[in-house]
Specification:
heterodimer; A: mainly beta; 7-stranded mixed beta sheet; 4-stranded antiparallel beta sheet; 11 strands; 48% strand; B: mainly beta; 6-stranded mixed beta sheet; 0% helix; globular
Chain lengths: 114, 114
């Protein structure tokens, strides 16, 4: 079956612009996670959804970052007024139930802010 | 202040020998630990986990050891194979294996030479 997909695979934008990153989880997976991986670092947790609701958004760095999952499947990570420091690979993962052991990760979206 | 530390950025091992990857943590509230493997241009893949109530967990060629008093865990791969060459991330949570916020180390790049 299809795995977790993320679009676009690469996104180049200018400082100050707005971007949206999309994650299509594995069908039927109720838990969805967003992470950010900067160069030379490990992934950094951003937000976790259980169904449509954000169960834990404690990792979002500031109010420029927002994520939605309106129908409990596809999720969009939205970044307003992008800054150069937002450049990173944004990873999405999903699992059938809340469980790190059962997470499947997508390939990530590489965001470059010029 | 890094709560999960992987002090060796890289490790090179001969095929057939043992690979030992180390991880130290500072937060005594962590109660669940995981190892992930990541190939270039792909998302991480869950490898093995351990709860803080155990000191060892084994899965095939992979064994994770946890020393809570030393706040140290290690991943042993025996025997190492060239296909094991990847970046390995250690991660920890203080919410068990099912909640959102997961703290990752910076990773160790393992090279297994034929």
């Amino acid at each position: 079956g299809a795995g977790v997909s993320q679009t676009p695979s690469n996104k180049v934008t200018e400082k100050g612009k707005y971007v949206e990153l999309r994650c299509d989880p594995i069908s039927g997976h109720t838990a969805l996670y967003w992470y950010r991986q900067s160069l030379g670092q490990g992934p950094e947790f951003l937000i976790y959804f259980q169904g449509t609701g954000a169960a834990d958004d404690s990792g979002l760095p500031n109010d420029r970052f927002f994520a939605v999952r309106p129908e409990g499947s596809v999720s969009t990570l939205k970044i307003q007024r992008t800054e150069r420091g937002d450049s990173a690979v944004y990873l999405c993962a999903s699992s059938l139930r809340p469980s790190y052991n059962e997470q499947f990760f997508g390939p990530g979206t590489r965001l470059t802010v010029l | 202040d890094q709560q999960v530390k992987q002090n060796s950025p890289s490790l090179s091992v001969q095929e057939g020998r043992i690979s030992i990857l180390n991880c130290d943590y500072t937060n005594s509230m962590f109660d669940y630990f995981l190892w992930y493997k990541k190939y270039p241009a792909e998302g991480p893949t869950f490898l093995i986990s351990i709860s803080s109530i155990k000191d060892k967990n084994e899965d095939g060629r992979f064994t994770v050891f946890l020393n809570k008093s030393a706040k140290h865990l290690s991943l042993h791969i025996v025997p190492s194979q060239p296909g094991d060459s990847a970046v390995y991330f250690c991660a920890a949570s203080e919410y068990g294996g099912s909640q959102g916020n997961l703290i990752f180390g910076k990773g160790t790049k393992l090279s297994v030479k034929p």
